[in-house]
Every structure is written in C-alpha cells, then in structure tokens.
Write a structure and sequence with these properties.
By secondary structure, the chain is α+β, with helices and mostly antiparallel strands. It has three helices and nine strands. It has a single domain, classed as 2,3-Dihydroxybiphenyl 1,2-Dioxygenase, domain 1, CATH 3.10.180. It starts with 8 loop residues before the first strand and ends with a strand.
C-alpha cells in the first residue's frame, strides 16, 4: 500500500463557526456536501463535519506545520470573536509551537519545525 495523503475529519460543535474559524486561520473552506466541508491550505487539507461528539472533539489533536510561527501567532491573536483559547509561542527541542484550542475543543499544535 502506498499512501498518497491522510486527511482528518474534524467534528464541529457549531458547523458554521468552525468553517469560519478555519477560514480565518487562512484555509480555503469549500462545501463538499450539506454536512461536510473541505478546508485547504496549499497542498494540505482536512474535513469539517456537521457532527459533534464531545469526548472525541476534546481529544482530537492536529499538528499544523507552518513556515513562520510569528506570522501564525499574529493571525491567531486577532481571532478574538471566536470561542477559542491559545498559549504563546513555546520553544521545544524540535521547534516552536502554539497550542490552540479550536471552537469544538480540538487542539491544534501550530508548529514551526527546526
């Protein structure tokens, strides 16, 4: 088996709010069906689904690798109208990271790798 891509399905507590949140992060969000959207940035994409299970959403973690962590932090800092929380940039042995909890409780590791 040769894998070409792996995409995660992110559960959405409030589907429209999640679509708006990922779009504000810089993703292009397009509907795929009435209950599913594809959020794309460059060659990377994920699915936003009109489905929510609290236990799953609050245990879902995504690593989102970026080229410039400071630019990412500036973008995230402006998202005050969303029900999210985030921590400042942290230096780790493997790079820098911002921990960002999305509107459904999913944890995004916004990462600039060394």
């Amino acid at each position: 088996m040769q894998v070409d891509d792996i995409r995660v399905f992110v559960p959405c507590k409030n589907y429209q709010q999640s679509c708006d949140f990922y779009q504000a992060l810089g993703f292009n969000v397009e509907p795929a069906s009435g209950d599913l959207s594809i959020a794309t940035s460059g060659e990377c994409s994920l699915f936003l689904q009109r489905y929510y299970k609290k236990e799953f959403a609050e245990n879902l973690m995504l690593q989102v690798c970026v080229l410039n962590i400071n630019e990412a932090f500036n973008t995230i800092s402006k998202l005050t109208h969303f029900d999210i929380r985030f921590e400042g940039i942290k230096q780790e042995p493997w790079g820098k990271v911002i921990y960002l909890w999305g509107p459904s409780g999913e944890l995004l590791h916004i990462t600039e790798l060394n």
